[in-house]
Design goal:
- Helix 8 packs antiparallel against helix 9 and helix 14 packs antiparallel against helix 15.
- The protein is extended, with a radius of gyration of 32 Å.
- The chain is built from 18 helices and 2 strands.
- Helix content is 73%, strand content 3%.
- Strands 1-2 form a two-stranded antiparallel sheet.
- The longest helix is centred in the C-terminal third of the chain and has 58 residues.
- By secondary structure, it is mainly alpha-helical.
- The protein has 3 domains: 49 residues, no CATH class; 73 residues, Type II secretion system (T2SS), domain F (Receptor-associated Protein), CATH 1.20.81.30; 253 residues, Type II secretion system (T2SS), domain F (Receptor-associated Protein, Up-down Bundle), CATH 1.20.81.
Amino acid sequence: MDFDELQIKANAQSQVPQTDSGKHILVDDGDADFYVYDAPFAREVLEMLKHEGQKDEEKVIYGVYDSSSKSLFTRINDFLIDNSKVSVRDKAYFFHLLGIMVDAGIPVVNAVESLANHAENPRLRRILHTISYNCAGGAPLTDAMMRFDDVFDEAELGIIKAGEASGKLNIMLRKLAEQLEKRNELNSKLWGAAVYPIAVLVVLIAVSIGMLVWILPTLLNLFKEGGVTFDKLPFVTRVLIGLQDVLVGYWWLILVLIFIAYAVFQAYKSTDRGAFMLDYYKLKIPFAGDLVRKVFVLRFVGMLGLLIESGLPVIRSLKISGNSITNRVYKLKIQESIGNVKAGKKISESLEDTNFLFPHEVVQMMNIGEKSANLASISEKISVQYQKEVDNSLRKMIAVFEPAMILVVGVFVALLALAIMAPIFNLNSVIAK
């Protein structure tokens, strides 16, 4: 039944009244009822939908695109995009979809170009267009991605290169996507655990400064007019007044001291000794240090297993896994282990003397994996177990932080109330007399 026949049938059966904006007709074609809109705005809406979501921007290919003749606004926009970040989540989504498309038999060039056209991140969209362009020119996927080493790290490039060499690119892309998704989820949990106490402390500091700068001076004038001298004020109130005098009278000195302290910290951090010591003390922070060590073990073991499974040599896998960890203490120990493995030792033997960094049970499981020539599978099991331990540690930390923050807020509010309300009560007694 074509559209004209449907229209005739609808005109004969419809009892819906005409409207000024057009017809609203119920049509029964024998299978289902549906509405046909024949109004002047209908085609406009459909045309708007066709263009909705389309990106009307110039395709940018690095090395080919030239913005020198563009407007100032375009050059500024290009600068901001080219210096923006590509999140772990964006990369995980890209690798996941690329693995599916390659598994479906779509050529890598076409798959990357298709994903570039639908990428939400503008920086990633430009990078994918460039990768597709270079791959179309004959470059392998890994070589095309290697140009963007600030986006794709050594571990990701190593896994993809091994996948290309072994003909298992689709499998390695999916496993890499899973690894990045786990990392992104873990980062989200860590940030979520840190945001609550940081937000509470920021609010408390802001409220304290507001009280000292704007509210307390007004109350002091009220106390003076009421005849309440400074020596009759409660101790907490006098401390608060002293802080207010320092903050208002020497705010510039406080800013200078903060700037100097920050500069000294950065200078110390920039030295090799300072960087190592700071990373060492991060691992010893009460409550949080144990969690940080578990996160690094999880990242090292998970990446090591994936790299070995992809077919990379053990020493190469160790090097890449070590570079994926930001803590210099772990890097130093893994570097020492690489030297020991080159000398003929096992990985587990190289790590067993530092239980502080690599717990005994991790070393033992890696030893079993090496003896059974199944280190990749054992590493994956360790990473699964440590993922659970990290989740449990985060829950425990949050369970401790929440009442601790409530206690801190309660003490802060109590001290402010004591410092402000007690003199007001004294003022009422003076007035009553």
